[in-house]
Amino acid sequence: MDLSQLHNALSSQSFHKVADICDELILHVASTGVAYQEEWPYAVHLLGHLYINDLNSARFLWKSVPQSIKEARPELVATWKIGQCLWTKDYAGVYNAVQGFDWSPETSGIVASFLENYRKKMFGLLTLAYSTIIVSDVAHFMGMSEEDATKYAVEHGWSLDVPSKMLTVEKPKITAEQKVDSSKLQRLTEFVFHLEN
Question: What region holds the CSN8/PSMD8/EIF3K domain (predicted)?
């Protein structure tokens, strides 16, 4: 079984391609009739789906994994724990699942990148949803200590009211520039001229 394409994606940190590569490879290998289950990198495959937030495909993959392989591979079970937390929107559980396992060299890169992206996504959602928020809630949603969460938020433009332990959210500036193309202006002028005459 040739997994060089998968290894290249992992080594080049093209983690967004992992799920598609694995899906194509597993279909190809399965169509040849060769027994592949014992050698298949299920944890990497599952992480690939979680990385692109394809929870449905992750669930179907998990259900297709033979029980004997689930029992024999703790890293696969740890990966699925992340998937379960994502599915149930257990935000702190995602961080606990990631940080509560000693990931192999093969998976550590994609797990670290997933966690970084997840943390950015959560921060973005907090920015959109709140105007003020208590430090402990930010720490909970960001999977950090209160001190680290405060530091992260302040570095991203939020302000801290120390007595109340409240963070004031800095909303992103939305710029709506409209560039008028001269050809569009000309067509509009011609259209208006046509309507008036």
Answer: 38-174
